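Fold this sequence, please.
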Amino acid sequence: MASAAGTIGVVGGGQLALMLCEAARSRDVDVIVQSASDEDPAMAVASEQVAGAPTDAAATKELLKRCQHITFENEWIPVDALQELDRNGDKFSPPLSSLLPLVNKLSQRRLLDDLAIPSPAWIALEEIDVDSPVLPVGWAFPLMAKAAHGGYDGKGTCVIRDFKSLKDLLSSVSVEDWLLETWVAYERELALVVSRDRQGRIRSLPLVETHQKNQVCDWVLAPAESEQLLEATAYNIAASLLTSLGYVGVMALEFFYGPAGLMVNEIAPRTHNSGHFSIEACSSSQFDQQLCITAGLPVPAPDLITPGAIMVNLLGLPPEGTAPLNSRLAAIEAMSRSHLHWYGKQEMPGRKVGHVTVLLEQTDPVARSQEASEVLETIRAIWPNPLN
């Protein structure tokens, strides 16, 4: 039976879809999930399932028969095939025309260049001579190599430290599917999750600071300690992207901040790890924003409703020398002002299996940063980061 507020579909059944389904419960919206397995995380709370991998356009066609509007867990979808299902461009959120330049890092970089948005200097790998590689004028090692498709959590990236490693890369990958970037000297990594509704109104979560271990997000501190001008610059960059694309939905931007100013590192056309804190810390979470925009509901402001929050990722630990899972989860839940999110995945070393958000009490930025450090230390004593 359909809910009072209607039904939406989501392509993908992982933890991002799980948290979208959880947000939908509070608004009486049914969510039908296109998922390859009934054991995927989202299936624990989904209203229905359409069996099929996120890349299965036939399954998405079936999903469209059951609901009017569809959103995506991530951008790794067959955009060209789906365009045949949406001639009017109004079935999917974000629209496929907006996703097209964002699903490929090469087209992402061209878009940023076209909009004069600062980002690391880059070159398509196919522009490098395979037999006699030469760097562009002014470039020096180390460099960052990135796959154009499918990279996340450090996958699809590698550091190029010299000509030998560059030659190794050139001989081992499809050069048309990779790019090279100059190495960026940065002081901090920041992120901003924003949304744009069907009427063109833009809303923003607080700017946050992120910290990575081996290119996998370790923790997120909200709000970032930053000047108002920096926050405004990040927002203006995001607003420029959203508006130029006619984007409808949720988007995340990852930034480098350092001597060269604020630079866009990555664009994620979806909800994002850096926005998980918003479930407890904001009046409307990133998943609530995604839900309301997709379902055509009024979209509330995602205001921060606590002095701050720290979100810490929980990665699977090796079984040897590790405390039992239940005892670790119980210890995390026993922490003051903590909110545990367990994704229901089998624990495997290095795999994201959950996260915990702890609401902070200090209003002074320096004191809040110290409070966050103490919370992080407590969490990591219970649940170490296996990437250390």
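The longest strand covers residues 249-258. The domain at 121-182 is CATH 3.30.1490.20 (Dna Ligase; domain 1).
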